[in-house]
Amino acid sequence: MNDTSFPVTTPIAELRLAGLQRSVEGRLLVDDVSTSIPRAEIVAITGPSGAGKSTLIRLVNRLDEPTSGTVYIGGSDYRKLPPTALRQTVGMVMQSANLFAGSVADNVGFGPAQRRQVLKREEIEGLLAKVGLSGYASQDVSTLSGGEAQRVSFARMLANRPRILLLDEPTSALDEKSSRTIEDLVLKVTEEDGVTCLIVTHSAAQALRLAKRTMFMSGGKLLSIGPTEEILHAHGSV
Fold first, then answer.
1. pLDDT exceeds cutoff 80 at 7
2. What is the CATH number of the domain that holds 173?
């Protein structure tokens, strides 16, 4: 009997970083970073201050431009996407909520409004329910606590239906209870919506709670990536 070989197909990564580099005035902030992340995975990014962690995720949605290298989303080069479409596909939540003056509903509906789409009231309520803020639509953002404001920023990001979520120390300014609420939300979004997530964190405990894999950066380089506990132990974080 003849031995028939079948080709082995490898699933296309939802997010692939290919030789990403950023140099500013001769200083390498991110130095030749390459890795692949499948759909619905949460990957933590750790390392010392100044390691290039925040710059790396800013490159992923072109808030900063790479000096060389590129990013592939579902196998397609992200340079083919207009910046507005890219930032709809790749959502980002910073350390602070950065809400603008007005109501919670105004903030949640902002992204779709830029594309001349109006979210219905029930759609806004549904997004707020998802982040644990049912009934907050009419509330002025100036009255929100830090944790509530951060959850509104998540709802605003989710209104764009992103495939990829970038989080830059999203709980660093929050108390423990609010931090856990945000972590639960991240887990819920990745599980229910299949969103892929990169989270920059200085907290080893947070990385262990959220991410199966962790990237460790130093001096702009990706030094290692692997199971979170192994990476944290290897670099003396736990």
1. no
2. 3.40.50.300
| Backbone phi, psi, residue 22, to 5° | -135, 130
For the chain, the average pLDDT equals: 92
Query: How high is the pLDDT of residue 87?
Result: 86
19 token code pair: 């030789």
| Tally of domains in the chain | 1
Question: In this structure, is residue 83 part of a structural domain?
Answer: yes
Q: CA of 167: how far to CAs of 39, 120, 121, in Å?
A: 16, 27, 27
Q: By the 8 A CB rule, do 33 and 189 touch?
A: no
* Confidence bin at 11 (pLDDT 50/70/90): low
Distances (CA, A) of 223 to 53, 152, 174, 203, 216: 12, 35, 29, 18, 6
Q: Which domain holds residue 144?
A: 15-234
